[in-house]
Amino acid sequence: MTTSGRHFLQIPGPSNVPDSVLHAIAMPTIDHRGPEFQELFTHVLDGMAAIFHTKNQVVIYPATGTGAWEAALVNTLDPGDEILCYETGHFSSLWAGMAEKWGLKPTVIAGDWRTGADPEKIREALAADTDHRFKAVCVVHNETSTGVTSRIPEIRRAIDDTGHPALFMVDTISSLGSVDYRHDEWGVDVTVSGSQKGLMLPPGLSFNAVSDKALDAHQRSTLPKSVWNWTDMLEAGANGRTPYTPNTNILYGLRESLRLLNEEGLDSVFARHSRYGKATRAAVEGWGLEVLCTNPDEYSPVLTAVIMPDGFDADELRRIILDRFNMSLGAGLSKLAGTVFRIGHLGDLSPLTLAGTLSGVQMGLQLAGVTVDTKGLDAALDILRDG
């Protein structure tokens, strides 16, 4: 196994953590009831509101994105409530499964795992729901298992066209900080996210951005909640506090990651990710392989899922690349296992890093016996050079 040089972590998250963020996390732990923490927490709350594009206070939990999923549900719904979920891949299915465990009743619009949530199908389902049984619509913005980005503003318009009062909940765990997202402007009621992808942090922080409508629903919600209770979190946060022990050192890292994102400028960050996605797809198509996502309007800027040719095992390819080139790629999840590998191109990533990544993938494909046209890499380099 090649061990010299750094490891290439090219999974779709957790993403690489910048050195300055790691150094910030290594700061001495402080009193989370003291004035220094109060200043830190107020700063990151304001910074995250700007990232979400929301006027309301964001809720920050010491948890992974799974906790933020649960918080979105238990803070707004009642036992037995029906919700409408759109199946876009592995993670949308997990969110619907969690709802079921909480005694909610998800109706899942089946998807093909190659396209995003279809606004027209959501429109049809809500228009047929004349009794307004559905209390929420749950959609994943960027489905990490497939490399497909759903069109959130179009889904909002579809909901509005029906006049349906359901809450609109969106998972941005793999898109926030990498893909343009506007909680208030797009009319989202609860946005869920996590720290370990576009925010360039280790796992351990999760977020809810909440609308006024969601806060009203929270006041009526009867699902049990303790750790996830928005009321406790928002009341403490308004004073720069937390109702229980926070993960202070990752919050230091968040302050630094927000500085880095703002220094580059969010528009530049989004354009960079878009360019990296375009370069990666050019390589895949040039190799003669197929991208899993079939709708160009839904290509993900943060990862590309690639279908292996018939007779080849994606996990064996990943093993070869890890052993020979010290690079990790994302596995195919659930029904995509063994047939798809995923190239992450998000977060703290330069053109040269992506060029090296794609070189490693091309060499790995050749070692695995897959016939590829080496012009694929050239096509990617042209985009990276001219971008």
Helix and strand composition category: alpha/beta
Helix-strand pattern? EHHEHEHEHEEEHEEEHHHHEEHEEHH
Q: What is the arithmetic mean of pLDDT?
A: 97
Shape: globular
- Straight-line N-to-C gap: 34 Å
Protein model, in words:
- It is a single chain.
- By secondary structure, the chain is of the alpha/beta class.
- The protein is built from 13 helices and 14 strands.
- Strands 2-10-9-8-5-3-4 form a 7-stranded mixed beta sheet, with helices on both faces.
- α1 runs antiparallel to α9, α10 runs parallel beside α12 and α11 packs across α12.
- The model has no long low-confidence stretch (mean pLDDT 97).
Provide a short characterization of the protein structure.
With 387 residues, the protein is α/β, with parallel strands linked by helices. It is built from 13 helices and 14 strands.
Secondary-structure topology with pairs:
Layout lengths: L7 E3 L8 H7 L9 H18 L6 E3 L3 H10 L7 E5 L3 H12 L3 E5 L9 H10 L5 E7 L1 E2 L4 E2 L2 H11 L4 E5 L18 E5 L11 E5 L1 H9 L9 H8 L10 H17 L1 H22 L2 E2 L11 E5 L6 H12 L1 E5 L8 E5 L6 H17 L7 H12 L1
Parallel strand pairs: 1-13, 3-4, 3-5, 5-8, 8-9
Antiparallel strand pairs: 2-10, 6-7, 9-10, 11-12, 12-14, 13-14
Helix pairs in contact: 1-9, 2-9, 5-6, 10-12, 10-13, 11-12, 12-13
Task: Give keywords.
globular, 13 helices, 387 residues, alpha/beta, seven-stranded mixed sheet, single chain, five-stranded mixed sheet
